[in-house]
Amino acid sequence: MTLQQLQYFLAAIEHGTFSAAADALYMAQPSLSEQIRRLETELGVALFVRAGRRLVLTEAGRALRPEAERTLEAAARAAASVADVRELRAGTATFGTFGDAPTWLIGNVAAAFRRRHPDVRLRVVGLNSSEVADEVREGSVEAGLVVLPIDDAGLDVRPAMEDELVYVSAAPERVSGPIAIERLADAPLILYDARWGWEDPTRRALLARAQRAGMRLEPAIEVEEVGNALDLAARGLGDTVISASISLRRGALPSALRYVSFDPPLHETFAFITRRDAVLSPATRELIALAERQLADMEARRAAA
């Protein structure tokens, strides 16, 4: 039994004939008649008898009528209950980002979203990229922006942009020119994402290059937040590595710090992730679109610099 069959059943009652009911529903009469026949076959009873040119309900048809009406009314209420969410008039949009995602990126996306949809609650979860992947995979978060590589089992991964990793130091002699990975072996390194260690994607990019050069990297200090790493580097306690999108943003670096590229340049890739074959809510689709625009603007500004 389907909602469509119940709709056809009630239309036949209202209009008195299968032909008139089909006309009212803008469909072919044989199709409507066939669906009602299938409904009668499933229920094992006749619902109508003919009296002249008009249809008359049987006892079974009279018993079904109020139940059909209640079922269609309940279905209509169910559809209406999600209309506000579908049309972005209510609900909550949840989005995961890597922990050191630029403040300006999150701020601009959140501000644009709230301007467009002031009645939708917004929850942006800042985690390590590996955690974001786990949250999306488990369904706790619909989508996220991560730094690759991640474990992509069960996920759709869509690369969004590439960013350069740069070396940051308060010591002028260590940032006088592009730095080879071999020089990091003798540098006092301050690395963030301490809890994830070498599972962090940024650290893995450094580690892969160091291993190809046959060397080991050992941080002198580990902290959780990139802001803490920059603060300690500004105090002269060591050097750190961050995304150029952060360091090139006005005011992001303490005045004591300078940065240089690696030799050859070292890059990381930002990507949007969702559960494989998931149907995203309208709010999450809107968040991704806004974030894509912000990243495109960032690339355009960087190219023009």
UniProtKB/TrEMBL annotation:
- Stretches of the chain forming a coiled coil according to its record: none
Which segment of the chain is annotated as a signal peptide?
A: none
Q: One Pfam family, short name please?
A: LysR_substrate
Q: Which PROSITE patterns match?
A: HTH_LYSR
User: Which terms are listed as keywords in the entry?
Assistant: DNA-binding, Transcription, Transcription regulation
Q: Which CDD domains match?
A: PBP2_LTTR_substrate
The residues covered by the HTH lysR-type domain are: 1-58
Q: Which InterPro entries match?
A: HTH-type_LysR_regulators (IPR050950), LysR_HTH_N (IPR000847), LysR_subst-bd (IPR005119), WH-like_DNA-bd_sf (IPR036388), WH_DNA-bd_sf (IPR036390)
Please name the Gene3D superfamilies in this protein's record: 3.40.190.290, Winged helix-like DNA-binding domain superfamily/Winged helix DNA-binding domain
**Of which family is this protein a member?**
Belongs to the LysR transcriptional regulatory family.
- What is the name attached to this protein's record? LysR substrate-binding domain-containing protein
Taxonomic lineage of the native organism: Bacteria, Bacillati, Actinomycetota, Thermoleophilia, Solirubrobacterales
